[in-house]
Write a structure and sequence with these properties.
By secondary structure, the chain is α/β, with parallel strands linked by helices. The chain is built from six helices and four strands. It has one domain. The protein is 42% helix and 13% strand. A two-stranded parallel sheet has the order 1-4. It has a two-stranded parallel sheet with strand order 2-3. β2, α4 and β3 form a beta-alpha-beta unit. It is globular and about 50 Å long.
Length: 142
């Protein structure tokens, strides 16, 4: 079935179904395709939360993009953003890019050593074991 752009635009909510946006929908599509096509291979999927600049490697604060949390961190650190109306209590799940890279490498090694086919889903997040509030994140950046 071929979907022309006009049909997709007019029927976006119906096509997305339970998914809140196209990002989560297409991410789910990719994961389902991997599960279906992996055959007898062991596979890992790493799901990072909001990726920000590096913690230590290659140097502290390194980034090559302003996507996700990067633009917010850059704006705060450089003084471009001086006022935000935020509650300090909620947790925000930022994870440094070098930690995500390390998790991908470890997951790849673990999966490569696996003797049986399977699917490992690894969540690269911080909030379950080491939660950080919005307020403490802002304080650390100032």
């Amino acid at each position: 079935m071929k979907l022309d752009p006009e049909f997709v635009i007019e029927n976006e909510k119906m096509l997305l179904g339970q998914y809140p946006n196209t990002y989560t929908f297409t991410k789910s599509m990719a994961e389902r395709a991997i599960m279906k096509k992996r055959g007898s291979l062991p596979v890992s999927i790493v799901r990072p939360s909001i990726i920000i600049s590096s913690y230590e490697e290659p140097v502290q604060g390194w980034t090559d993009t302003l996507a996700a949390g990067g633009v917010l961190v850059l704006a705060l650190v450089n003084g471009y953003l001086t006022t935000m109306n935020l509650r300090r209590e909620p947790y925000i799940d930022f994870v440094p890019v070098d930690l995500v890279s390390n998790i991908i490498l470890a997951s790849t090694a673990y999966t490569g050593l696996s003797k049986t086919p399977g699917l490992n889903v690894v969540h690269a997040t911080t909030s379950q074991l080491n939660p950080i509030s919005v307020g403490s994140t802002i304080d650390a950046l100032n």
